Amino acid sequence: MTINNSRNVISIKLRQLIVTIFFIALFALLYASSLIPTPLLGLSRNEIGIGLLVIYVLFILYHFGLDLNYIIYSDEGPNIILRYYSIKIYSQKHHSVEIPKKDFQRYEIRRTFFWLKPELILYLNIKKGTGRYPPVSLAALSGKQRKALTESLNRYVKKGK
What we know:
The protein is α+β, with helices and mostly antiparallel strands. About 40% of the residues lie in helices and about 30% in strands. It has a domain at about 1-65. The radius of gyration is 22 Å and the shape is elongated.
């Protein structure tokens, strides 16, 4: 089985672009035209501008905190393969995890960032015991893709360990 979240990543990036354009347009309307009357609801142009800026910064921090990843998962062949990279603007490091199915021990999904970010942690058998890979954010996967991923990994979990 192969899981690829490229459609989700494209829609997330498109949504970020649209929101950015929307806020730029609001700022332009606010400061470069007289279409928005001031005071509006008792707020001056600067107060409205600061409020819009705070909302936009919270939107950006929300997406930054989720640490969204482009993910390709495959369990075809003798290895479990997980390739991912962050879709943050300045973070383009590619990561690849390849675990032989016979060495895969278990996995864990935990939630962080105010319970909004599911993270996958993979464990494998090594000579000294159990090895652990760094957490991978699954926030950019759809619920259906997350379910398919956990069902796939459940097939390879070692029972009784």
